[in-house]
Every structure is written in C-alpha cells, then in structure tokens.
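The freezer alarm interrupted the setup, so I double-checked each line after restarting. Inputs confirmed:
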Amino acid sequence: MSKQIFFDSSVDRAFKPKRIIGRFAIYSVLIFWAFLCLFPIYWTVTTTFKAAPDVMKGNLIPWWDFRPKWLGLKSLGLSPNTIFVESTVREEFLKRFANSAITSVGASSIAVLLGSCAAYGLSRFKYRFGFMRNSDISFFFLSQLILPPVVLALPFLVLYKELALLDTRVGLIALYTLTVLPIVIWIMKDQFSSIPTELEEAALVDGLSIWGAFLTIILPIALPGMVASFIISLVLTWNEYFFAALLTSSHAKTLPVMVASQTGSQGISWWSMAALSLAAILPLIIIAVILERYIIKGMAAGAVK
Amino acid sequence: MSSDNYLHIVTQDGVSNKKTRLGRLLMWGSVGLFVCTVVWQILQEYGVIDTQFSNWRPSLYAYFFWAICLCSAQVLLYGERGKRTLFILPAVLFVIAMVIFPLIFALGIAFSSWNLSSPDGRQFNGLDNLWEMWSDPFYWNALKNMVWYILAILPEYAIAFGLAVLLNAQIRARKFFRVAFLMPLMLSPVAVSWMIGKSMLEIRFGPISRLARFLGWDNPSFFGSGEMARGMIMVMDAWTFIPFMMIMILAGLQAIPRELHEAAQVDGAPPWKRFWEITFPLMLPVSITAILIRIIFKLKLADIIINVTSGGPGGATDSVTSFIYREYRDRSNVGYGTFLAIFYLVIIIFFMTALMKLAERWSKPRH
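Predicted 3D structure, all chains:
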C-alpha cells in the first residue's frame, strides 16, 4: 500500500469525535502539567515586584491587578535607582553569587577533565591493577554515587579543619568534583563507546600517539557528551546545599546557603526572598532553555543500551 | 598486549635502562618524601618534634607531588602501556584521596565520643555510640520515614511514565513542553523550599492555601500533622525529580522501533493492549535503571526537609541525612553523627546490592 498523501477524501474529512476528544485530553494534561511546572517560577518572578498589600491580596497578574515595583531588586541593591549607589547587601549577594559560579564551574570542569580521560581509558583499554579489572574499576567509580553525603560530611569537616581548607572555595571544588565525577564517567563512557575504534586505529597508523589521537580526533567528536556532562554537573553543583552549609561559614558561602539562611530569619520580606530565590534559579533556567537538548542527551545516556 | 584491548594497535614498548632507573627513582623517591612528611607531622602532633607547621597542608602537598611523580613514572617505566594507564590514574588517585582516606578516618571518628564544642576532644568509646543509637527513637523514626520516602517513588514513576508517553505522542509544540517539564529539575532545592514550601504553601497568603480555601477547606494547614507534612515533602521532592525519570523513560520510548507498534496495529490490538504487551515490557530495563538511580538520589534527600520543616513536626518528616545534619548543627556531636552515617551507609550498601541483584533478574528477558 502506498503512503497516503492527501487527506481530503470524504473519509478523512469526516468529523471524528473520538479523535478530537483524545487530542483534547492529551493537550489538557500537557498544559496542566506545564502549568504545574511553571507556576512556582512565575509566582517567584512576580512576587519579586510585589509590595506587601499585593502579596496579602493574592494579586497575580502584573499591570492588571497590581503595579510592579522594584522592591525585590532594591532589597538586593540591584534596582535602577540603587545600582550605582554603594550597597552592602549587593556586595554580599555578588560575593555569594561569584562563589557559587566559581565553585560550580570549577568543579564541573575538573570533573569533565578527569572523567573524560578515565571514561576513554575504560572504554578502550583493558586494565589490570591487581585483582581490579575494567568492570571493577567502573564499579569503583560508579559506586561513589551511592555514597550519601552525610557519610563524608563530618569526616571532611574535621579533615578540612586540619588542612586549613574549611571555608575555602578550593575545598568545596574538590568535594563537588567528587560528587559529580561518577555521573560524568557514566555519560562519557556511553559517549565514547558510540565512537568506532577504527577512527583511532586509522589515526595511530598515520603516526599519532594515543594521547594525540584522543585529543585531536576523539575529543572533538565526543564534545556533545562533554557539554552534556558539564551542564548536568553544573546543575548539581550550583544547587548543592548540604556540603556548602556544613563546610563554609563566611568566606566561601554559596548562594543556596545564603538563600537558606534568609529563609530561617523571621520577618524577612517576601519580595527580597523572592528576588534572592530568583537569582538562585535564573542562571540555570536560562541554561535549560538554551541548552535543553544537551541536558536531555546527558540524562538519556545509559537509559538506552 | 595489543590484542587484549578493545582498540587494536601494535606499539613498541621499548624502554631504555636509563628511563627505567629514572622512573624507579621518581616513584620511590616521592613515596619516601610523602611518608617522611606524614611521619614528621604525626611526630609533631604528639609533640616529639617542634616545627612550625600550623596545619596538615604539607602532607597534602606531598600527596600531590607523589601523585604527579607516580603518573610520570608510569610513562617512564612502561612506555606506551604507561601512557594508557595515565588515562585513568588521575581519576583513581583523586577518588582514593577523597573517599577511601576520609572513610577510614570516619571509621575512627565513629567509634569515639567527640563533641566539637566540648574541650575534651576526641575520646575512644568503643561501642557506646551503637548502644546510644539502639535506644534513639528519633534515628529509627528517620529510617522509617526513609522507607516512606522511597515508596513514594512508585507514584512518581507512574506519573513520569504517563508524561513521557504523552510527550512521545504526535503533538505540536513538543519542544516547549519538554523545556517546561524539565524546568523543576533545574531549580535548587533550597530555592524550591522557599518558593513552594515557605511562600506558596504559606497558610494566610500563599496561592495554594487560597485555592484550598476556595475549594472549601476552611483552615488549610500543610505542615500541621505529621502525615500531611511528610506528604508535602514528598510532593515537593517529586515535583523536582519527576522530570529526571520522565526524560530517561522518554529516551527509552524513542528507542522502541516503530515497526513493532505497526505490526500490533495490523494485528488489531487495541491501544491499551499495545501499551501493556509491547511498550511496557520493552521499557522494563530502562524503567528499572531510572528507578534505581532515583532511589539513590532519594536516599540523599535532605535539603528540602532542612529548609522547610527542619524535621518537624515531632520528627515526622526527618530523613536520615537531615537528622544527622541537625545532630551536628545543634549539638556538634561529630562522633555520634558519624556513627549514624556509617550505619546508614552499611544499610544502603546491603539494600542497594540486593536491589541490583533483583533488578538484574527482572530485567532479563523471560523465556
């Protein structure tokens, strides 16, 4: 049977209530869930610009039932009339923001670097360290995923104190690298095993060394996987709270810790909390919108063998 | 050697005597340096030698130096084979330094009484922590809560599967829906606990409370009773993590060849039957992987609890992690807290091993 091209015969054009109801049901569920996912974000964004009476009246739509004001951003020293004025809150906020950015980007980069090399090695060569074979080494790496952060938290607290790494970015970066390394190795192993070995074999025959082949031939092909694992690491480390809350106090405190410390204090105004939360989630929302396909690719790795 | 690898290459491992000697020197020299530094610092700790080291940084640097020397020695000693080892060696050394060593250290702390705020310092107390744990109702309560939290994964999985099926259907604006559905996963749990837990669920002004009053619930209280509070924590955690399972399942759905569905359609199988007899069985391995990973993440659940309820009311929402966190934050009880954590780790290892064995059996095709 040849494929139908035109859909205008009487059979096709007939009114099909069942099909329409089905479509309607699908779209209403999809829209409902999209609403559930997006409403809290919308709520946070609008609350940033609400004055106290607007919050109490439960106004939701800007310009229609309340007039947006710069209250939230003003409390962070970022509104148009405060941005050029000296502001200790802004200093504090920018410092936390920078700490978060540096630790998450640093940890993700190191993890991708170490993890890609390890994943490449594991997908191409057979190792033997004593009783450890390739599968054992893979398991050794991936088993770190099971390790709950509490087990490491208190020893690290004591250890970092001895090493003078408490409340430093370097200490946090090292720990974050450890937490995302298994995920990077998982994604990258999947990525490398989809690249045919003939490519390196050809490169090696042409006189490249194994590291040369890895760096110049394989890595460019594996770039999407690296981006995916980098972004997923970034999401996990940017949002990390537990270690940051335990191991930092004044110097290296990250944004989530700042948000959390403000939530606890009574009498804090809604708009400033909303502005702070918004600042904590906005970078990743932007990344998610732009690089969505890499995130999905990274998470789908390992799902399909 | 070459035929052992997945990559078929023939290389010369010609290593000259001079290089071998240099490599050995590098390796053992750096080991010696590392051991010397550590011994030196231990002696200083016990007051045998008086040096000006104010912390253990020198030992850390010595470890770094040893790691670098070990890596270069591999290349010098084994040539081409060493270069291959170099791919995984840095990651292995890093993980050993960051996991194995602290774990051994943790075992030492776990069997001692150590309150950071007391001046006594660390004191070995044998199994006292075990007996304390045995009669600590709050810890067992937290473990029991973890069982509830884990069980909440099943409805999460069902919702995620449903959403994935919908996203896989012939729909318009698929990219918009995918991005929208992915969004909660991007949000930091701390921000979520304010956005939802503290503001949207706020009893007087929160939009959800308003909705509840509109629907006829006069005095909505979301964190009043234990069950309700636990349910709310589950919902918030589910909200952030459903996208994760959804995407894994979606990837699995897209890998199912279309011909299978077409064949079933030709055979006259109704859609419901097509789902149960084709899609679901084919999705079993992916589902099990997704659920296993989700369980691993769920076992670390803490951020939302710490920030929204801090375990209350009466420990009804406590997870093990948040309980130990408060044990440290409120009482600085490092020794006992570490023991609880180690005990938790042991339970997790047994639980996950059993689960993975079962999963392996389930995901094998039936005959």
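Quick read of the result. The radius of gyration of chain B is 28 Å.
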